[in-house]
Every structure is written in C-alpha cells, then in structure tokens.
Amino acid sequence: MTTIGWDDDAIVLIDQTRLPGELVHLRITTVAELIDAIKRLAVRGAPALGVAGALGVALAARTGESIEPLAEARPTAVNLAWGVREAAMAADPLKRALEIRDDDVWACREMGERGADLLASYAATRVMTICNTGALATVERGTALGVIQTMHERGTLTEAIALETRPLLQGARLTTWELQNMGAPFRLIVDSAGPFLLARGLADAVVIGADRIAVNGDTANKIGSYMLALGAHRAGVPFIVVAPETTIDPLTPSGVEIEIEDRGSAEVTALPGIDTYNPAFDVTPAELITAIVTERRVVRPARGETLVP
Prior knowledge:
Elements: E1 4-6, E2 11-14, E3 25-28, H1 31-39, H2 46-63, H3 68-71, H4 78-88, H5 93-121, E4 126-129, H6 144-154, E5 159-163, H7 170-182, E6 186-189, H8 194-199, E7 205-208, E8 212-213, E9 219-222, H9 225-235, E10 239-242, E11 281-284, E12 291-293, E13 298-299
Parallel strand pairs: 4-5, 4-7, 5-6, 7-10, 10-12
Antiparallel strand pairs: 1-2, 2-3, 8-9, 9-11, 12-13
Helix pairs in contact: 2-4, 2-5, 4-5, 5-6
C-alpha cells in the first residue's frame, strides 16, 4: 500500500478520514487543496507530511501559489516544514520531492529491521503502541508499526496492543485496519487502560512514533504517549521511539521549545459552549525513553547517549 504519491501533475493520497469504512484516494491539484487535506487529517503522520510538503512545492511551481502557508499547516510535526524547505531549495522541486518519497520507503524498512532486532534483544513479543504509525503515516510500511510488521513477518510477534487514540481514534480506525490487513495478532484497548495493563505485565515493550524529537531527546508524539512512558517506566518495560533522522530537529534544544498544536473544542465536546484543552501531542522527557531507533542508529537517552555530538 502506498499512502501518497505523484501522478501526472497531481498529488494522489489516501483520504484517511474515510477509513476504515472506505478506501478513497484524493487527487490534489492545488496547494490550497493540500493544506485543507493536511489540516483535516486526510493525510497525517510526520514522514507522510514531509513527503506531502515536498510534493506541495512541486505543485506550487505549476500553480504559482505561495508555499508559506503549507509549511505552517501543522506546527508540531517538523517533517512538514522540512519537506517544504528541501524541495524549495532544489533546482527541480519535483525531483527532490520524489527523492524524499523514495528515501522514506527505504528508511521505513531499515527502521523496521533495526527496531525488531532491538526488541528481540529484550525478548519482547507483546508490543503496545499508540496512534497510527504504519504505512498510512509514511509512504509504505511505517515507523513504530513498521517494526511490529517486521516482527510479525519474522514470526516473533505474539500480540500487538493498540490504544484507541482519542479523540479521533487513529488507533481504533487506522492501526487496527492495518494490523488486520497484515494478518497480525492484536487487541484494541481504550487509552486510559494502557498504564494499568503495563503494570499487570500484559506488554513487554511500548513502541511509538514521533512528530518531533528535540536535540536532547525529548520527543513530541500523539497525546497519551507521555502517559505510556510513565506507565512503562513504573513497570520496568522498555519504551522505544521509532522515527526517521529527519524528525530530529537540530533547531529545537528540548521539549520545552516544541509548539504543541491545540485542535480546539469541536473534536471533544458533546455540548456547545464548553471550553477545552485539546492538545494533539504531548512531550515525553528523554530520561523516560529507553531507545530512539532511526534508519541509521539506535540511541539510548536513558543511558545518557545523545543525538548530536
């Protein structure tokens, strides 16, 4: 399955708001359409947003639209602005965008192998995860869910445990759809059950993706990740972050500087006129992270290992 690609002067992507009921592909021909797709989460996931940003610059070269609003469409995921910047600096934006797409496919396979090897070293066969970090969040295979897929292909996965991921249920809608399609054994749980089930020993490891990783290793990911990190730490369970090198932001020293997107009240309220906090992401401190797995290395922040020299 390919989540996002280019076809005859248009971006073609899976509309993730229609899953799991329908598999619908959108044909995006303007930057304005792409920004709308990004904001309403028709396309989402840090690596996929990086590709979308780069392909958006290729579109802008044909339509004459500004790329500045595209880079700012979702502030927390660093890959989006990175993809826009990479393509904008290139002599041939489309060529660079397609290189970023192909690099993502390679990186996901490498992360899958490296992450599965790491989990094997912990004898972990039951893995808990949050949000959706599979092919739908990338171009193919995925980051954290790509590790789970590799474990399944190797025959080392006993069970994946997916959190529903409120309020938009990316875990219940998207991750379960991907797990079912790959034939992997899994169960779905409500978000608040995660730490309790870790305390009861129902998972050997937690594996998550990332939308931005600060220089010190602090990691922004879907809201609920910090809760799992605390639960994993208390239960003595490895907490693993899987993300490409491009998600490490050299301009962000620590998690304090990461802008957290608030998606407003409509996603969480049942009655009108209710004030809310609705952060789309939280930040897990580096000291709670057992390892960060990229396509090139494994870094262990809890041991004091650093991402940059």
